[in-house]
Amino acid sequence: MPTEVIVYGVVFLGIFLLFEGVYLAMFGRSVNAQNKYNRRLQMLKGGMSNKDTMERLRKEMDLHEGALKSPVYSILAKQLRRAGMAIAPRRMMVIIVGAFAISFMGLSFGTGSSFNFKLLLSAVLSVGGVYLWVSSKANKRKMLMQEQLPDSIELMVRSLRVGHPFTSAFRVAAEETPDPLGTEYGIAVDEIAYGRDIGDSLNEMAERLEIPDLRFLAVAVAIQQQSGGNLAEVLAGLAKVIRDRFRLFRKVKAITAEAQWSGNFLSGFPVFALIGVNMIQPGYFDPVIEKSWFYYAVAVIGIFLIANLLVMRKLVNIKV
Length: 320
Prior knowledge:
This protein is mainly α.
């Protein structure tokens, strides 16, 4: 029994790491903010025109628009869009099928479970592994953009204070901000240059990335367009609020880290204890494993452990 549990975990972790390596091999980049030039500027420096660059980036962004209407696949498509991963839905389905095949082969060689159980578990491991992999990319990208946002707004503020219009200030921020936020700014800059309304472009970017602070930026610019006012002062205040909010978020995260890890430990300890006992004394559970109620008891315990993990996560997930 413990050997099979270990195989399940190894297969799941193997799927997660495999697709991380495949993604890096295919695209040669990860989510980071260490590049001197963002991706849009690199494409322009490579000789592409503004129009071709915008069309290519927009095409990548719109890969998942049709899949968002699908009742099941839309959950994964939404995460792919947030992660900025230019993987077409068909290719994503091929990846999931490949993960299913790898999971099934791993479970077939490593466990003696029934055929139907291996099919079901392979489907859960493949879909769950791919979803967690994409979600980790999306969350990492979102955190990076939230960190970059106040600095980029302060760049706009400095440009506005020396007399530049907002479109020029926004273009400066797009050129000076590294990825992932710099390329997103660049797409909006190109849309505005080709005649799209500033407020509409910023609103779409905020909705697509699901970052509340970007919505504040879009609202501030839209209000200034309609009623006037000192946009530089408004954006300076917004940058300060975002920076203070992010600092408070980090402080709350540090304070709640102990409770979060306690919840994870309490949920995971019974599983590790079960594996440890079976490794030390393999026949320890033999007297009860043949009982008709054993698997029902295991299922109930598993439900309680998952509920404990979810409740503890909910308690420490404090919105800032």
